[in-house]
Amino acid sequence: xxxxxxxxxxxxxxxxxxxxxxxxxxxxxxxxxxxxxxxxxxxxxxxxxxxxxxxxxxxxxxxxxxxxxxxxxxxxxxxxxxxxxxxxxxxxxxxxxxxxxxxxxxxxxxxxxxxxxxxxxxxxxxxxxxxxxxxxxxxxxxxxxxxxxxxxxxxxxxxxxxxxxxxxxxxxxxxxxxxxxxxxxxxxxxxxxxxxxxxxxxxxxxxxxxxxxxxxxxxxxxxxxxxxxxxxxxxxxxxxxxxxxxxxxxxxxxxxxxxxxxxxxxxxxxxxxxxxxxxxxxxxxxxxxxxxxxxxxxxxxxxxxxxxxxxxxxxxxxxxxxxxxxxxxxxxxxxxxxxxxxxxxxxxxxxxxxxxxxxxxxxxxxxxxxxxxxxxxxxxxxxxxxxxxxx
Length: 391
Fold this sequence. Notes:
single chain, 12 helices, 14% strand, globular
């Protein structure tokens, strides 16, 4: 059967964008899907050869301007890439996804011309990656008030503290560090972002062990032990780190929604095929049962609705008209709906859905990350409700 997601995307995006999606889809089918089971069972991160191939395809430079060596695309291109690769693996999709939406994007939006020319050409090819240092052991949802500090020393700064849950930390050449710089400042004006080389003296990285979600994606803890950086390392303006963070996370939340829909698209196809192949009572397929049909129809409706909404938000984002509430809403809805329906899809398929080679358990586990990544759904609902209360 043709993929159901392709049916919808063909009508939702321009012809050239759909052709791009098809090229990434075919790459994922040929280069990622056949190797996934081996990577999972060997507990390895995305291999360097795969990252190199994605770099050669231009996946690390999709929304980066051609002036800096990128593809000159937009956020819709990034989301289409996420949908195509996440159909098989969110772990692989998030590698170029986070490198762009969390790594290169803040540099594109807030960097100086010198910073852009120094970093974007290598970021666009995947030769270099930035990790986004936001979450901390004691700071999750309250990310606006970091415990990591940056104190002025002469003409530079000294950074101290720990960041955790940093995606792509293993491959990162630099970390964008969100640090407290003005303890007495008003809310939203207390922090500053810094571009810090990972090989800088006093920077220590450790891969976070025992993670059972996004297993092929690097998730690291980065410690800063009195790390000295020059004033030119500031990304954006001094004490404007919250603005950098918020601007970055809007686009990241759209990509997380795309990962959720990629998993939902896989589950829908797997389930509808299995329901016609699984023969039971009276030697007939289980797809004839209305309860089975209800779940498949609900997945189909959720997929079409989510894609339509997400791509609309991408257009608003590219026009600089997407609000924080809109980005949060689509992320919350897509992640919650996809993960809820995935459980029902596994019930339809029964015990076989628990085996890694069937594929559903991978997406079941990874969908949890979409509920807590880029802001937990509970925390984001607090953001969403504010305009409803007149705040």
